[in-house]
Amino acid sequence: MALSGQAGNAGGASTNESPKPSHKDGDPNFGIGMGRSMKAMAVFNQVKSDYETSLANVTELTERQAILKQVHARSAVKALELAKDLGGIYNKAAQLVASLQVCDTDNQPGSY
Questions:
Q1: What pLDDT is recorded for position 12?
Q2: What is the reported pTM?
Q3: How many domains is the chain built from?
Q4: Is residue 103 part of a domain?
Q5: How many helices (H) and strands (E) does the chain have?
Q6: Which DSSP category does 107 fall into?
Q7: Containing domain of residue 53, as a range?
Q8: Which residue from 20, 87, 107, 110 lies 20 to 30 Å from 8 (Cα-Cα)?
Q9: Residue 19 placed within a domain
Q10: Other residues' Cβ atoms within 10 Å of the Cβ of residue 68
Q11: Do 69 and 110 contact (CB within 8 A), yes or no?
């Protein structure tokens, strides 16, 4: 009978799950960083495309504002999921970029 606290099953994770690679393993892995960067770029491109296609040919101000509100809500969910997945250093980097680009919180969509 196996003990649930054995190494390889830390935290009660299923033995079928592969542990996520970590910088804490003591062996830097360039591939991990590249994978995370590519994931962030993919989400950025999805969000950018959503804004572009949703707002294409929309000229009426009230309709544009309503569409922007919907796109902000969809994009905020994607950004949150990305932040949860990538974790620590990416969150701090995003905070830095946001502070440089959006000094006035009145200009930031409420969804974010």
A1: 47
A2: 0.59
A3: 1
A4: yes
A5: 3, 0
A6: G
A7: 29-107
A8: 87
A9: no
A10: 16
A11: no
